[in-house]
Write a structure and sequence with these properties.
- Chain A: Belongs to the protein-tyrosine phosphatase family. Non-receptor class myotubularin subfamily.
- Chain A: It holds the Pfam family Myotub-related.
- The complex is a heterodimer of chains A (640) and B (515).
- By secondary structure, chain A is of the alpha+beta class.
- Chain A has 22 helices and 14 strands.
- By secondary structure, chain B is an alpha+beta fold.
- Classes of the chains: A alpha+beta (640), B alpha+beta (515).
- Chains A and B meet through helix 8, helix 9 and helix 20 of A and helix 7, helix 8 and helix 18 of B.
C-alpha cells in the first residue's frame, strides 16, 4: 500500500481547547502525525494494531473530525479539512485495523535488523524448564510428565507439565476428562521452603452430582506430595453465584464430600464481561472534560474497577498466606482456568518469590502463568478480527495489581512502572511474537520463533530504561514474602497507565527521571575517577595499590525512553551550557518524537487555560485568536 | 494557678504504650504541667513527650483493673496507653483532660519553654514588613508603607504597617476600611516583577442591601491599575453566597461602581464546612473495615479533595490573571482571613520561585498568614477528634499545606523543602513549644509579648541541624511560573498527616539522598 498524506490536519487536545496543526501520514503499519511548527515538531506514531476504534463525526465548519481510540488508552481527535480525505483515511483505517489473518500482523513484517542467530538467542532468553528447576522441580514429589507432549490431553496447555509423582497417566487422563477444556491440575509454582505447591486447573464437570475418581485421586496426589499439611486449599476464584450457575451446564465446583482433605473456598473475582464493562466505565469517567472531584470519585466507585483490582489482590494474598504461613498446597481454578486463575497464580507467586520482582523474573512469570498456560491473548486483546465478547482487560488488571504493589513497596521491585506500561503497550502492538495467538500450540503452528522476534530480548536490551532507582535487593532478602495492606485506601487510580498520553494530567517533573539522571551522572563521575586514577598510575604517581581500570568508552548518558512519565530525554552537558539563561516560550516537551538527539529538561507545564481554571473566556479587550499559540501555550524551558 | 493542683497522679509505672506502625513500649508515665511523658528508662530507647495542648480528646476503657486511655491528638495521631490500676487510670485521664483544655494563652507551654539550643538568628526579627517593603521599593515606586493602623484601631486583624498605593492617603484608607468587613481594606499582597501586575487582598465590601458605595475604596483599588488596563476581582464565594451576605451588611463590588474590574466568583467552602469535612475524612481513614465502594463514597462525602481542587483552581486562576492576562487582581471572600489567604499564598507559590525556598516559604507564611491575621488560635483550638462544641475551628491552614503538597508532588524538583517541612508546620500550628502560631493577629501577639516571652519556630527550624530534615534532595532552583494540573486524576490524597502510613516518603527521601 502506498503512503497517504494529508496536510493541514488539526490535532485537538482531549481535555482543553488547544490544538496543533500538522501533516497526517498513513503507512502500511502506522498512522503518523507530524506537527508543522518547526520549533517543536512533535510526532505521534500510532500503530494500526493499537487502534481499537475509529469514528467519523459529523462535518464541522473547519473540517471533518476523526476520533481514534487506542488500546493503550491514547485518544486522538483529528480535524481533517476535506471530507474526502477524512473518508479515505477512515475507510483505510477500518480495513487496516481489522486484520483477518495472523500473517497480516506487524510482527511478521517487523525487522529490527537482527540476524537469525540473534533472533534465536532472543527466544532462548526465557527458559521455563530452567525456571522449574530454580523452584526445585522435578524433585522427589513432583515430576515432569510427557502426557501432553503432542497436545493430546489438553490443547491449551504447554507440552511440558509438572504433576505429583503419584499421578499416573490414567489418573491424569481421567482427571482431564472431568475438567473444562481438559485443563487438569498441574503445578505452576513450588514453594521450596515448605514444599507447598500452587497448582492450577479449570472447573470440574461436576454438574449437580457427577464425580470422577481419577480427579479425586489427582487432588489426593497433590495433597500427599506435601508432608507439611494434611489438607489442600481449593480456591474457586469465581463468585459463588457464578459457580452455582455453572452447575446447570454440567460444570461447577468440587464437592467437599467427595474429595478428602480439601478446604474449599470461593474468592469472588468477577468474570471477563464484568471486567470489560468496568474498564469501559472507568475510561468514560476519566475521559470526561472538566471533570469535577465529586463526579470523579463517584465515577471511580461506580465503575467498580478498584473493587475488582482489590478482589484479585485479596485472592493472591490468600494464596500466598496459605502457602507461606500454613505451608499448605493450593489448587486454583475459575471456569476455564486461563483468566482469573492466571491472575491469582501469577500475583500470588510474585508475593511469595522476590525473583519475580526482578526484570528477568517478571518476564519468566508472564511467560509461565500467562503465555504458556494459555491465557487467550489473541482473543482478550483483540488481535485478529475478534469476537467483542471475548475482549477483556484481564492482563491489564494483573499489571495494575503489580503497580499497586510497587506503590506499597517502592523498594521491592527492580523495575519501574514504565516497564509494566511498556509490556502493556506490546501486548497490544503485535510487534513481537510473544503474545500472538491463544496457546502455545497455536504459536508453534504459526512458527513464531522462526518468523518473529521476542519482546523479552528487546526489553532486556533497554533494561536501563526500566530500572527502579530505589530498588533494594536487601529489601528482598529481609522481605521475601510481601504482605500488602488490603485497606481500600491503598488502592489508587493508575494515572500513568490510563492517562499515559494525556500530558496535562502528569506531574510536571518526574522524580523517577531525576533520580535516574543523578544515578547516571554518578556512574559517569565514578568512571572519570577511575580513569584519572588509571592515568595517575600510568605516570607512576599513585601510591595506593589500586588496580588499573579500563576507562569508560564514552561519556554520553544512556538513551532514555521517549515517555511522558520520564519526560523528554536529557541534553548533554555541553548543550545545556549553550542554552543557559535562555527561556524559551511556546514549546512543550516533545512527545513520542523518535530519535531526538537534543531534547532538554523541561518543566512540562502546560498553560493555565489548558488546565481548566477557566472563566477567563471573553475577557475584555484581549480576545485572542484560538490559534494564537504563543500566549496560551507558553511553557518555559528550564535551564540548568 | 498551679499545674500541680490539676495533676492527681504524677507518675505510674508499668504503663504500655501502643502506637501505629511502631513496637509497643513499656515504661513509666509521668505527667507534668505541659507534657505527658512515657519513658522506658532504658538507654537508647525513645521517650514519648506529648504536649497536653496537642490532645484533642481521650477515651477511657477498662478490662478488669487494667485501664486503657486512647489519646487522640490534634495532629491526628492516635496513641493508646494501658495503665494498670483503675484509680491511676482515672486520675491520669482526668488530669489530661484538665490540662489539655486550659483556656488561658499565657499558661501555654511556649511561655515556659526554654530552648536547649542557642538562638543565633531570632525568628521574631526575621520577617519584618520594612524588609519586605525594601524589596518592593527596589522594583517599583508606586507603593508606600502606611502607618495608619499603628495602634490597630483601623483594622484590629491587620499588622501596624501596610503596603498601599502611593497616591492614597491615610484618610482615604480609613474611609475604605470602614467600607470593608472588619476594616480589612485592600492592601498589597504580591507584586509580580515580571510584568508589574499586583495581587491585593481585602475583606468583602459592606454594600448591604441598598448598594452602599465608597468612593475611596473604588479609588484605592483603581489606583493599582495602569491607564486603560482592567483588573479582576476574585470573590472566593459563589454568587449566591455573596448575594446572601448582603442581608447581613456584606456584599460584593457592583459592576456600576467598579467599571474597570471584572468580578469572578469561585466556590471555596466556608471554614465551618471545612471542619466537618476534616472530621468525616478522618473517620473514613480510621475505619479499617471499609469495602472499596464504601471508602470511595466516604472520601467523596467528606468533600476534602473537592476543597483541595477548588482552592488550587482559584489560586491558579488568580495567578493566570496576573501572569497570563497581565491584569491586577483583588482577592476576597467574607472576612478575608481564610479562603482569601489560601488563594493569595498559593498564587504566590505558583508565580514566585522565591516562595519555593525554605526561607521564602517561611516569609510567605509570616506575611500571608500570621501578619495578615489568620486567626490561628481559633482555627486550631480543636481538631478532628474533639468532643467539644465546635466554635470557630477549621483546617484552613491544613488545606493550604495540602495544596502546597499537591504542587510539590507535581513539581518535585522545584521546591527547596520536602513533605516533612509541611508536616512540621501542620503539627506546630496545632500544638507547639514555640510562640509563632499563638494568638489570632499581630495585635494579639504584641499584647502577649510573644517575641520577648517565647521562642519563634523559625529560630529553631533555621538551625542547620534541623534544616537538614526538611531539605529536598531533588531541588534545582528554577525561575519559572509553575502551573499545576487541577484535574481530579492529578490530585492525590495527602496520606501522611492522616496517619495512613509510617512516613514512607521519608524513607524514599533518604534512599534518594544516598544515591
Amino acid at each position: 500500500m502506498s503512503k497517504y498524506v494529508v496536510e493541514q490536519v488539526k490535532l485537538l487536545d482531549r481535555f482543553s481547547n488547544k490544538s496543533v496543526t500538522g501533516t497526517l501520514h498513513l503507512t502500511a503499519t502506522h498512522l503518523i502525525f507530524v506537527e508543522s511548527n518547526s520549533t517543536s515538531a512533535q510526532e505521534i506514531w500510532i500503530l494500526h494494531h493499537h487502534i481499537a476504534s475509529v469514528e467519523k463525526l459529523s462535518l464541522k465548519t473547519n473540517g471533518c473530525p476523526l476520533l481514534i481510540q487506542c488500546r493503550n488508552f491514547r485518544l486522538v481527535h483529528f480535524v481533517i479539512p476535506r471530507e474526502r480525505d477524512c473518508h479515505d483515511i477512515y475507510s483505510s483505517l477500518l480495513r487496516l485495523l481489522r486484520p483477518v489473518s495472523y500473517d497480516e500482523l506487524y510482527a511478521f513484517s517487523y525487522n529490527p535488523k537482527q540476524n537469525d542467530q540473534q533472533r534465536e538467542e532472543g527466544w532462548q532468553l526465557i527458559d521455563l524448564a530452567a525456571e522449574f528447576e530454580r523452584m526445585g522441580v522435578p524433585c522427589d514429589q513432583w515430576q515432569l510428565t510427557d502426557v501432553n507432549r503432542e497436545y493430546k490431553v489438553c490443547k491449551t496447555y504447554p507440552r511440558d507439565l509438572y504433576v505429583p509423582i503419584m499421578a499416573s497417566k490414567p489418573i491424569i487422563v481421567g482427571s482431564s476428562k472431568f475438567r473444562s477444556k481438559g485443563r487438569f491440575p498441574v503445578l505452576t509454582y513450588f514453594y521450596q521452603e515448605k514444599k507447598a505447591a500452587v497448582c492450577r486447573c479449570s472447573q470440574p464437570l461436576s454438574g449437580f452430582s457427577a464425580r470422577c475418581l481419577e480427579d479425586e485421586h489427582m487432588l489426593q496426589a497433590i495433597s500427599k506430595a506435601n508432608h507439611n499439611s494434611r489438607y489442600i486449599y481449593v480456591m474457586d476464584t469465581r463468585p459463588k453465584l457464578n459457580a452455582l450457575a455453572n452447575r446447570a451446564a454440567g460444570k461447577g465446583y468440587e464437592n467437599e464430600d467427595n474429595y478428602s482433605n480439601i478446604r474449599f473456598q470461593f474468592v469472588g473475582i468477577e468474570n471477563i464481561h464484568v471486567m470489560r464493562g468496568s474498564l469501559q466505565k472507568l475510561l468514560e469517567v476519566v475521559g470526561t472534560r472538566s471533570l469535577s472531584m465529586t463526579d470523579y470519585l463517584v465515577g471511580l466507585e461506580n465503575s467498580g474497577w478498584l473493587r475488582h483490582i482489590k478482589a484479585i489482590m485479596d485472592a493472591a494474598i490468600f494464596l500466598a498466606k496459605a502457602v507461606t504461613v500454613e505451608g499448605a498446597s493450593v489448587l486454583v481454578h475459575c471456569s476455564d482456568g486461563w483468566d482469573r486463575t492466571a491472575q491469582v497464580c501469577a500475583l500470588g507467586s510474585l508475593l511469595m518469590d522476590p525473583y519475580y520482582r526482578t526484570i528477568k523474573g517478571f518476564m519468566v512469570l508472564i511467560e509461565k502463568d500467562w503465555i504458556s498456560f494459555g491465557h487467550k491473548f489473541a482473543d482478550r486483546c483483540d488481535q485478529l478480527d475478534p469476537d467483542p465478547k471475548e475482549v477483556s482487560p484481564i492482563f491489564t488488571q494483573f499489571l495494575e495489581c503489580v503497580w499497586q504493589l510497587t506503590e506499597q513497596f517502592p523498594q521491592a521491585f527492580e523495575f519501574s512502572e514504565w516497564f509494566l506500561i511498556q509490556i502493556h503497550e506490546h501486548v497490544h502492538s503485535c510487534q513481537f511474537g510473544n503474545f500472538l495467538g491463544n496457546s502455545q500450540r497455536q504459536r508453534e503452528d504459526l512458527q513464531l520463533k522462526e518468523r518473529t522476534y521476542s519482546l523479552w530480548a528487546h526489553l532486556l536490551s533497554e533494561k536501563q530504561n526500566y530500572l527502579n532507582p530505589v530498588y533494594s535487593p536487601s529489601f528482598a532478602e529481609s522481605h521475601p514474602v510481601l504482605e500488602p495492606s488490603t485497606q481500600a485506601y491503598h488502592f489508587k487510580f493508575w494515572r500513568n497507565m490510563y492517562h499515559q498520553y494525556d500530558r496535562s494530567m502528569h506531574p510536571r517533573q518526574s522524580i523517577l527521571k531525576h533520580v535516574l539522571t543523578l544515578k547516571d551522572s554518578n556512574r559517569e563521575l565514578e568512571g572519570t575517577v577511575q580513569a584519572l586514577k588509571t592515568k595517575l598510575q600510568k605516570f607512576s604517581v599513585s601510591t595506593s595499590p589500586l588496580k588499573p581500570q579500563t576507562p569508560p568508552r564514552e561519556r554520553s548518558l544512556p538513551p532514555r525512553p521517549q515517555s511522558l512519565i520520564l519526560g523528554a530525554p536529557l541534553l548533554s552537558r555541553k548543550e545545556v551550557q549553550q542554552e543557559e539563561d535562555e527561556e524559551v516560550f511556546g514549546e512543550e516537551a516533545m512527545e513520542d518524537a523518535p530519535a531526538i538527539t537534543g531534547g532538554e529538561r523541561t518543566v512540562e507545564g502546560s498553560s493555565a487555560t489548558e488546565n481548566g481554571y477557566g472563566e477567563l473566556m471573553g475577557s475584555f479587550g484581549s480576545k485572542n485568536e484560538p490559534g494564537a499559540v504563543t500566549l496560551e501555550f507558553g511553557v518555559a524551558r528550564m535551564t540548568c | 494557678m498551679e499545674f500541680a493542683e490539676l495533676i492527681k497522679t504524677p507518675r505510674v509505672d508499668g504503663v504500655v504504650l501502643h502506637r501505629p506502625f511502631m513496637p509497643t513500649v513499656e515504661g513509666t508515665l509521668c505527667l507534668t504541667g505541659h507534657h505527658l511523658i512515657l519513658s522506658s528508662r532504658q538507654d537508647n530507647t525513645e521517650e514519648l513527650w506529648l504536649l497536653h495542648a496537642n490532645i484533642d480528646s481521650i477515651e477511657k476503657r477498662f478490662v478488669g483493673s487494667l485501664g486503657t486511655i486512647i489519646v487522640k491528638c490534634k495532629d491526628l495521631r492516635v496513641i493508646q496507653l494501658d495503665i494498670p490500676g483503675m484509680e491511676e487510670c482515672l486520675n491520669i485521664a482526668s488530669s489530661i483532660e484538665a490540662l489539655s483544655t486550659l483556656d488561658s494563652v499565657s499558661l501555654m507551654y511556649p511561655f515556659f519553654y526554654r530552648p536547649l539550643f542557642e538562638v543565633i538568628e531570632d525568628g521574631w526579627q526575621l520577617f519584618v514588613p520594612e524588609e519586605a517593603f525594601k524589596d518592593l521599593e527596589s522594583m517599583t515606586d508606586e507603593w508606600r508603607l502606611s502607618e495608619v493602623n499603628k495602634d490597630f484601631s483601623v483594622c484590629p486583624s491587620y499588622p501596624s504597617l501596610l503596603t498601599v498605593p502611593k497616591d492614597i492617603d491615610d484618610e482615604s484608607l480609613c474611609k475604605a476600611a470602614s467600607f470593608r468587613h472588619g476594616g480589612r481594606f485592600p492592601v498589597l499582597s504580591y507584586y509580580h516583577k515580571k510584568n508589574g501586575m499586583v495581587m491585593m487582598r481585602a475583606a468583602q465590601p459592606l454594600t448591604g442591601t441598598n448598594g452602599r458605595r465608597c468612593k475611596e475604596d473604588e479609588k484605592l483599588i483603581n489606583a493599582t491599575l495602569c491607564a486603560g488596563k482592567r483588573g479582576y476581582i476574585i470573590d472566593t464565594r459563589t454568587i449566591a453566597v455573596a448575594q446572601q451576605a448582603k442581608a447581613r451588611g456584606g456584599g460584593f463590588e457592583q459592576e456600576a461602581n467598579y467599571a474597570q474590574w471584572r468580578r469572578i466568583h469561585k466556590a471555596i467552602e466556608r471554614s465551618n464546612v471545612l471542619q466537618e469535612g476534616l472530621i468525616k475524612l478522618v473517620e473514613a481513614c480510621n475505619d479499617q473495615s471499609h469495602s472499596m465502594d464504601r471508602w470511595l463514597s466516604k472520601l467523596e462525602a467528606s468533600n476534602w479533595q473537592s476543597n483541595v481542587k477548588e482552592i488550587l483552581t482559584t489560586a491558579c486562576l488568580a495567578a493566570q490573571c496576573i501572569d497570563r492576562e497581565g491584569a491586577s487582581v483583588l482577592v476576597h471572600g467574607t472576612e478575608g482571613t481564610d479562603s482569601t489567604l489560601q488563594v493569595t499564598s498559593l498564587a504566590q507559590i505558583i508565580l514566585d520561585p522565591a516562595c519555593r525556598t525554605i526561607r521564602g516559604f517561611e516569609a510567605l507564611i509570616e506575611r500571608e498568614w500570621l501578619q495578615a491575621g489568620h486567626p490561628f488560635q481559633q482555627r486550631c483550638a480543636q481538631s478532628a477528634y474533639s468532643n467539644g462544641k465546635p466554635r470557630s475551628e477549621a483546617p484552613v491552614f491544613l488545606l493550604f499545606l495540602d495544596c502546597v503538597w499537591q504542587i510539590l508532588r507535581q513539581f518535585p524538583c522545584s521546591f527547596q523543602f520536602n513533605e516533612n517541612f509541611l508536616i512540621m508546620l501542620f503539627e506546630h500550628a496545632y500544638a507547639s513549644q514555640f510562640g509563632t502560631f499563638l494568638g489570632n493577629s499581630v495585635a494579639e501577639r504584641l499584647k502577649l509579648l510573644l517575641s520577648q516571652k517565647t521562642v519563634s519556630l523559625w529560630s529553631w527550624v533555621n538551625r542547620p541541624q534541623e534544616l537538614e530534615r526538611f531539605l529536598n534532595p531533588l531541588y534545582e532552583p528554577n525561575n519559572l511560573v509553575i502551573w499545576p494540573s487541577v484535574a481530579p486524576q492529578s490530585l492525590l490524597l495527602w496520606e501522611v498527616p492522616l496517619q495512613m502510613h509510617e512516613m514512607p516518603k521519608e524513607h524514599m527521601d533518604c534512599e534518594i539522598s544516598m544515591c
